[in-house]
Amino acid sequence: MADTEQRWTEIEHLPEWDEEFYHIYTAKKFGKWVMIKTLRPEYADDPRYRSMIEQEFDVRYNLAHPNIVMINDFEEIPGIGRCIVTDDVYGDSLRKLIDERRVTPAHVEQLRHQLVGALEYIQANHIVHPPLKPENIIFTENIGNLKLIDVGFEQRPSLSHQSTNDDIYNYGLVLEEVLDASDNIDATLNRVARRCTDPDPKRRYRDLQQLHLALENRRPRTVYLIIIAFLVVMILLLLWLYSPYAPEPATGTTSLIINTIL
Q1: For residues 93 and 146, what is the distance between their CA atoms, to the nearest angstrom?
Q2: Is the predicted pLDDT of residue 223 greater than 60, yes or no?
Q3: What pTM was estimated for this model as a whole?
Q4: Which of 37, 110, 185, 219 is positioned for an S-S bond with 223, CB 3.0–4.6 A?
Q5: Closest by CA position to 145, among listed 106, 190, 184, 201
Q6: pLDDT at residue number 60
Q7: Rounded CA gap, 168 and 170, in Å?
């Protein structure tokens, strides 16, 4: 008992962090700050939800991404119950920053790059997760790192197009709220947000890679490849026209061809 009391200290419930099925706490484990999540009392004795929290631990334990909260352990904590133990990500949710109009350009840049990177990682690992929303995005205290929480508990062989499309739509909703709260007039971000939330799913970005390129205001790689291929063909044609192997053209024809190319 003494060892258990030494292990866990300063346990504090964080109601504003609670998730649909979980209560969230901050605590110290052997003097180090961590976060813990456990089933709400109304679900704690239900085998279906006990299986859910165990599955979440199994699925997320091996995930490793700098912008996703990392799971460290799964253990029984006296007075609380069976808990998932994660890294300390105490700080402000994006929802709080939006409501208090404290969104800064630095926050916007992290949403532009790091959040999309985290979503790409989740999709690459085929994790089914709750809809992306400001409540699930945390900026840690002091350092201000972006961390995505409530990542999900189910891993599938592949994700449906609907799931990946929903990520793009929900990202657009988050971006719209952020831009409104920060009075950001970045034309690229406003254009991206509008396309992400287009009522017609066919007019949205087809995947996160295309979204990433749009956020960088860059053209897709295929366009550059086509341009390069065209230039290569033109150079080879010019070299051939000036080579000894080219057929003898009628007077003025070579010049006409070259001028047409150029």
Answers
A1: 9
A2: no
A3: 0.78
A4: 219
A5: 106
A6: 94
A7: 6
